[in-house]
Every structure is written in C-alpha cells, then in structure tokens.
C-alpha cells in the first residue's frame, strides 16, 4: 500500500458563479482501522481562502501549521491579506523545497480573488500546480471524484446549486472507496461569506 | 578618559560602563517620542513622527508603530533601519513559537527573546548595538494587558505608563502625576483607568512634549490594543481616525498658561 493511501482522504473543489465550493470527507484511518470520524482535511487560511490537504495525516496537520505561520508573516510584513493565487504559489514553493524528501500530501486550494473572481487549483506532492476553471480532486477517492464531477458539473452554478452538485459528487465518490467517507463537510465561499454544512452520508 | 573605552562594544570602562550602549541611548533620545499607557481594558500607544514633509506619502507605511503579532503591537524610537531588522526578527520569533507550541507567544516571552538578541550585540561579535528602544503593548491569556519598555542594552521592564525618545524625562514626570494608580489585583493591571482616560492622558502628554504648536494627524501615529470577543484586537489608527481623536480631546490639547 502506498504511503498516500495509509490514512485515506477525499477532497474536491468546484467553481460556480461568483462562488467556490470545497468539500472533504472526515475519515482518519490506519490502513483498515478507522481511528477518527471527525478529521477534516480542509481549513481556512484567510476569510477568502480555504485549503484542503489529502494524503498522509501527519503531513496534513504539520502543513496546516506551517501555512498559518507563513500567512501570518505575510500579513504582518505586507500589511494585507494574501490572495489565493499568491498563496497557491507559496504552497507550491514550500512543497518543492522538499523535492527529495517530500510531504506526502496533495493540496487543493479554493478561494475568491479580491475582485470576486473564483479561484481553484490542485497540486501534486512536489508542488506542480494545476489551475482549473471547473473542478479539482484529490485523495484515495480521486478517481471516483473525477468521474462524479465530470458528469455532474456544469458552469455557472449558483451557491445553492453548487452545494447540491459538490455534495452528490462527494457522497457517491466516497461510497465506492473503502478508505474515505464517514461523513463529509462542505464549505461554500461567496462574496457575502462562507456557508459551512455537514453532509449526512453512510457511516462506513 | 572615555575615549579609550568607547570604540569597542565588548569592553567595559574602568567605571563599569558600556559606552557604546550609552551612545546608542543618546541616539534614541533624539528620536520621536513614543508614549504607552496601560488601562484596565486596553493599551494606548501614541507616537510623534519626525520625518515630515509635504512630499512624503504618509498614508502608506508606518514610521513608529508596527504590529509584531496578532497580540503585540510596538512603538519604536531610534534608528528606523535598525528597528526594521528587529521588527522582522520579532515577527519570526512570534511565528516560530506559534508553530512549535500551537498557541500565541506570551508578551513577555517575545520581549525577552528580542532583548536577548539585542544583548548579544553588546557582548560578542564586535558589532555595534541596535540604536532602538521599543514600547511593546500586548495581551496574553496568562497575564492580560502588559506594556514593556526595552533598550539597546537588552534590558526590559514592565510599565503602567512609559515614554521613550525625545523629552521622555518630561513626559515620564507628567505621566507619573496624572496616571491613576489604584490598588488592584495583580492580573487586572492595578488601575481604574479606562481606555478613554488613557487616550486623554496620551493626548495631554503629547501636547506638552511635542515641539510644534498644533498637533495634526500628519505628525502622529496612534494605536490601541483591546479585547474583542475575548481575543486581542490591534487597531492602528488612520489619519482620519487620529483627527477624530484630536478633536475629541481638544480641551486637553489647548495650550495652557503655565
């Protein structure tokens, strides 16, 4: 079993009309054993940026702490909050710094730029950025998520429609993956604020 | 006699003095005043800008007051270039602590580490000391609101009201007279002064110590740290907000006969 599959994860982000959605499952496992059903892989970075990290859980936790440190330093030095594109570049840089001893994570960034423009991207474990204008996926359920998103997603979905789409994509994808699931959380980022909802799914 | 013992930072004089450190303090006594006043629900920092010209783009960037962390704001007196290095260092110190311990650095810890850095330049390396004094105003969950003063020697102490820079002696005596110092429990800063009193006192002291006849927002920087929703909140006032403050305490600012 690969190190990226040891803990299990599913993360997806989607673009809507003036909004973005990012969703995560809640399972934390150790191979077949399930250890926690409340381990969310998505965390806020600023009011307008959320990052989800799929992969090895210890690296997920450590990187969240490191991002907080770097974003704070940026805020204090530049006297402004960091933008999604800039933040993604910083994440990519931090991962490539460890090119020959990498963090075993696959990040997914979702945010709204200053002008309200939606932004999503994903990266591989050594920081290769993939900018997308539709959706990005990561985790043990990535292939399943790709299939669900490709069939369910369409452009210019409003916040509520986007929520339905992301939720269906997440729930059905994790149901076909033994290593992810046990509940899910969806965050919808709009210019007015963030709406966070828990999904009711199969608890297995 | 002093000539022989002042060219190196790392030697004592026969009287037991470190001349380079004292010369650094001399440099600071020519810099713009910074006043800090502790109240029971927050701290006020007020500073006088020295570099003023109609051509300066004042709205961007501070000269005197900087945020070190989400819970600490500092006023600087002395060489701005030296201060920038120390401000950057203190920001790194604060974030490294947060990374390692998962909680915000207590104010005294930040001040101590910064002072340890400054002390190093008085004992080894052959480099001159930093010509900067700080007034650090901060809040942590262990000790509440605290105000620390630190000097180029690396000494620091906690104050209810303090002043650094030009005319600081004068300002300190006014503060001593006017500050309401009551008996209180150790954690509650031992004072009944509120933010409003502190702001008024800051304006009073500024008006007495600053050279120019009239105080305007161009010449001043103001910052406050208070609690909002149980979390520390730093507010570095904009020019418009400073004008508002000066207007509010106009009575105190009117030049007196004495």
Question: What would the keywords be for this entry?
Answer:
heterodimer; A: 204 residues; 5-stranded antiparallel sheet; 12 strands; globular; B: 258 residues; alpha+beta; 7 helices; 34% helix
Task: Chart the SSEs and their pairings.
The complex is a heterodimer of chains A (204) and B (258).
Chain A: E1 10-15, E2 20-25, E3 28-30, E4 33-36, E5 42-46, E6 49-55, H1 57-78, H2 84-96, E7 105-112, E8 118-123, E9 129-132, E10 135-139, H3 142-152, H4 159-175, E11 184-190, E12 193-199
Antiparallel strand pairs in A: 1-2, 1-10, 2-11, 3-4, 5-6, 6-7, 7-8, 8-9, 11-12
Helix pairs in contact in A: 3-4
Chain B: H1 19-28, E1 34-39, E2 42-48, E3 65-69, E4 72-78, H2 80-101, H3 107-123, E5 132-140, E6 144-150, E7 156-158, E8 161-164, H4 168-178, H5 195-209, E9 220-228, E10 231-236, H6 239-248, H7 250-253
Antiparallel strand pairs in B: 1-2, 1-8, 2-9, 3-4, 4-5, 5-6, 6-7, 9-10
Cα Rg of chain B = 18 Å
Widest sheet: strand ordering of chain B? 8-1-2-9-10
Number of strands of chain B: 10
**Portion in beta strands of chain B:** 15-25%
Q: So how many helices of chain B?
A: 7
Mean pLDDT metric of chain B: 88
Structural class of chain B: alpha+beta
Biggest chain pair interface: A-B, 10 and 14 residues
Overview of this protein structure:
- The complex is a heterodimer of chains A (204) and B (258).
- Chain A has helices at residues 57-78, 84-96, 142-152, 159-175; strands at residues 10-15, 20-25, 28-30, 33-36, 42-46, 49-55, 105-112, 118-123, 129-132, 135-139, 184-190, 193-199.
- By secondary structure, chain A is α+β, with helices and mostly antiparallel strands.
- Chain A starts with 9 loop residues before the first strand and ends in a 5-residue tail after the last strand.
- Helices cover 31% and strands 33% of the residues of chain A.
- In chain A, a hairpin with a 2-residue loop joins strand 5 (42-46) and strand 6 (49-55).
- Chain A is globular, with a radius of gyration of 16 Å.
- In chain A, the strands form 3 sheets. Chain A has a 5-stranded antiparallel β-sheet with strand order 10-1-2-11-12, covered by helices on one side. In chain A, strands 5-6-7-8-9 form a 5-stranded antiparallel β-sheet, with helices on one face. In chain A, strands 3-4 form a two-stranded antiparallel sheet.
- The relative contact order of chain B is 0.19.
- In chain B, helix 2 (80-101) packs across helix 3 and helix 4 runs antiparallel to helix 5 (195-209).
- With 258 residues, chain B is α+β, with helices and mostly antiparallel strands.
- The A-B interface holds A 65-66, 68-70, 72-73, 76-77, 79 and B 61, 67-70, 88, 91-92, 94-96, 98-99, 102.
């Amino acid at each position: 079993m690969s190190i990226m599959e040891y803990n299990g994860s599913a993360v997806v982000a989607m673009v809507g009309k003036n909004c973005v959605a990012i969703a995560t499952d809640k399972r934390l496992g150790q191979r077949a054993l399930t250890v926690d059903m409340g381990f969310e892989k998505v965390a806020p970075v600023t009011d307008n940026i959320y990052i989800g990290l799929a992969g090895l859980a210890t690296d997920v936790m450590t990187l969240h702490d490191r991002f907080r440190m770097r974003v704070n330093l940026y805020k204090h030095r530049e006297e402004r909050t960091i933008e999604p594109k800039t933040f993604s570049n910083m994440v990519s840089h931090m991962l490539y710094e460890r090119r020959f001893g990498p963090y075993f994570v696959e990040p997914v960034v979702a945010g709204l730029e200053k002008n309200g423009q939606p932004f999503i991207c994903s990266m591989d474990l050594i920081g290769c950025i993939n900018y997308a204008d539709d959706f990005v996926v990561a985790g043990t359920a990535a292939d399943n998520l790709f299939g669900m998103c490709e069939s369910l997603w369409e452009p210019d979905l409003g916040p509520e429609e986007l929520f339905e789409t992301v939720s269906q994509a997440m729930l059905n994808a994790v149901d076909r993956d033994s290593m992810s699931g046990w509940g899910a959380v969806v965050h919808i980022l709009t210019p007015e604020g963030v709406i966070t909802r828990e999904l009711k799914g199969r608890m297995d | 006699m002093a000539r022989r013992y002042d060219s190196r930072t790392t030697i004592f004089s026969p009287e037991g003095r470190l001349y380079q450190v004292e010369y650094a303090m001399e440099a600071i006594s020519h810099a713009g005043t910074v006043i800090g006043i502790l109240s029971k629900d927050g701290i006020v920092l007020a500073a006088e800008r020295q570099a003023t010209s109609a051509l300066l783009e004042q709205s961007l960037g501070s000269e005197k007051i900087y945020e070190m962390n989400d819970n600490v704001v500092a006023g600087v007196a002395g060489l701005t270039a030296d201060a920038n290095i120390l401000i950057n260092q203190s920001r790194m110190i604060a974030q490294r602590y947060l990374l390692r311990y998962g909680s915000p650095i207590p104010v005294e810890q930040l001040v101590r580490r910064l002072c340890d850095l400054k002390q190093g330049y008085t004992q080894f390396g052959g480099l001159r000391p930093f010509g900067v004094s700080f007034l650090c105003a901060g809040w942590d969950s262990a000790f509440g609101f605290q105000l620390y003063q630190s000097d180029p020697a690396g000494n620091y102490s906690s104050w209810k009201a303090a002043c650094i820079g030009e005319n600081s002696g004068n300002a300190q005596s006014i503060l001593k007279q006017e500050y309401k110092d009551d008996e209180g429990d150790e954690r509650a800063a031992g004072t009944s002064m509120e933010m409003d009193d502190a702001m008024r006192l800051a304006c009073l002291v500024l008006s007495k110590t600053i050279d120019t006849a009239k105080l305007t927002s161009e010449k001043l920087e103001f910052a406050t740290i208070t609690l909002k929703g149980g979390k520390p909140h730093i507010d570095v006032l904009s020019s418009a907000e400073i004008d508002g403050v000066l207007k509010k305490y106009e009575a105190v600012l009117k030049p007196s006969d004495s």
